[in-house]
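Human:
Care to share another protein and its fold?

Assistant:
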Amino acid sequence: MRKLNKFLALLICIILYGIMLAQSAWAKEYVSVKSGLDVIFVMDYSGSMKSNDPNDIAQGMVKAFIDTVHATDIHIGFVAYNDQILSATQPLPVKTNEERQALKMLIDKAGYSGNTDIGLGLRYAYDLIRQNSERKKAIILISDGESDLRGSATGRVLENALQDIEYVTSECKKEAIPIYSIAFGEYDGNVKSLEKISGQTDGRMYTVKKPETLIQVLYGIFENNMDYRIEKITDGIYAAGQQDILVKLDEPYVDELDVLLISPQAIGSVEIIYGEKKAEIVHLKNYAVAKIEDIDEQIRELVVRTETVRNQELQVYLLAYRNLTPVLLTEPVINKNSSLTYQVYFKDKNENIITDEAFYHRFFYTFALSKKEEKETLEAEIRNGRICGEIIPEHAGTYFLEGRLDDHMGKVVFPTIEIQVRNRCPEGELPANERYTILTKEQIVQLSNYFSDPDGDNLTYSLKELSDNTGNTGTKSLQAELSDGVLRIKPVKSGKGMIELEITDGEAAFTYTYEAEVIPLWKAYWWVIVSLAVLCAAIFWKLKHKAKPELKQLVADTRKNQFCGRLDAYFTVQPETEEEIPPLSFSMIQFIDNKLSLDLLFKEYPETIEALELDSIYLVADEERRMVLYHGSKSSVMIGNSIVCKEIQYSVSFGDVIYITSPDRAYDLEIHYIAVIQ
């Protein structure tokens, strides 16, 4: 069970470490998505507007906008008012020609007449547009700026209109719905009233006197919601006849092209020739529109062919739409002193990444990294088909990355990205299980050899005061001093000692506790005591088994003695290649001399004699039925647990066992000295 728990703990650590590494290296895509837009036109159809726009140019330009707007995710609504609501619809999609035609028919439904109630029109439009709370919204008010309810049969008075205006502007400010107001026509009207309405909602007021100005104003209002480019191709006065106007196409990665013709006179027949095809034309009196959605990048020009009357004023505009997805790639979580990289690239409608470096050179780009009140502008360059940059944050904390791209077709503002820069704690430890005595010398520890910071910061160290078990500061078993990253440890008394170090990288700190035991001298040097005891025992044994004189002298001194008893011999180890040697037994009374070399006993096994050097191992008969062992061989010889040294005499008694091991350990021989009853 303990092994299983250790394995599980190790596995969990590996998984957590892997997650930490994965988070450090995980890059995330941040997409600048242009949110869906609901826009509602609030158009003044009162009698005063009739004198300002006798040719219904304002209505025509709104319809031209509907026909040319890139309708990927825009809904358009409409409210026609005078002193009452004449027609209205909530914002509707305008993706198809049928949807656009239905909306334009609603615009044409009413004519200019009656009094003016701007508050009524705004209140009605606000109630329609507020129904979808998740999309961006905008209100466009086209009026001469004056509410006039004198003689109105509706029962409303000017105070009612002003109260509704105040309510709508207040609510739009809360909900971030800008109201753009347009004073259209030659009659100035009360433009201050329109300025106030727009100013209170973070919108703008425009004065428009020409139809082409109105269409540019409308597209300027939506520049943050569409990637588009309006290019004036021609603006001139033409003679009667057919006009062929050549339009160069040089904008890459375009998804839609719209050609818009505007004239104060009625526009004649129009053809738009794109490659080998003729685009479908929407033709309404003072304007004509062709929408080209099937884009061929190989076609680099188109022809606008139209019939003009004498002295006809004509403006031709080319509107190009780009539906690319800008992506900012960066890592939301990194470690301090690591490289924070950021890349910007575009994806087309098929999710393919555009790697054309010439395309990226069209943009002006700015990046900034901020923390609290500090903001740093970042460098970037075009590399490997992307806009790339990097920075190394030197401090931990929460940063905010901002990015923006600009070109002549609009701007891309990425959402502010929160970047977490982590500071990892210092790590390391001192050698464990250190044991000291009061005789131990002062230990000098260079802390930088044991502690480091994973983020590469320089570490500083400090000592914390500790108390021992008595609560008295300064009576610890260990004394410590710290200077310039060098720790000095001095044992002062027996017991357990503890040192606490505070280690910091300048932003984060952790406390490391070092423990060591100062042990008593008798515990520390027990081996000395044991060694002395063993030495005394050896001396005692030596005295008991004192050496005899040299072998010749020994034989001479014991010539009257005779062997007795029996020797039983066993080979416990021998080479596997040899035939096993059985147990052997030798009666000692058969030997007349009082000296015997062991090779005489094993003469039938010459290999063993040579391996064990038995001819250099002697037995001499001693008094009291003992023997003396004496040898000069290279084999290891023991009597019981005692080692037999060369050329020293050892006494052998009944019951003793002689062990002989060859130098190469190929043979082990046991010889038992056995008493025999005579």
User: Anything to note?
Assistant: The CA atoms of residues 212 and 262 lie 7 Å apart. The two ends are 64 Å apart (CA to CA). The first strand starts at residue 28 and ends at 31.
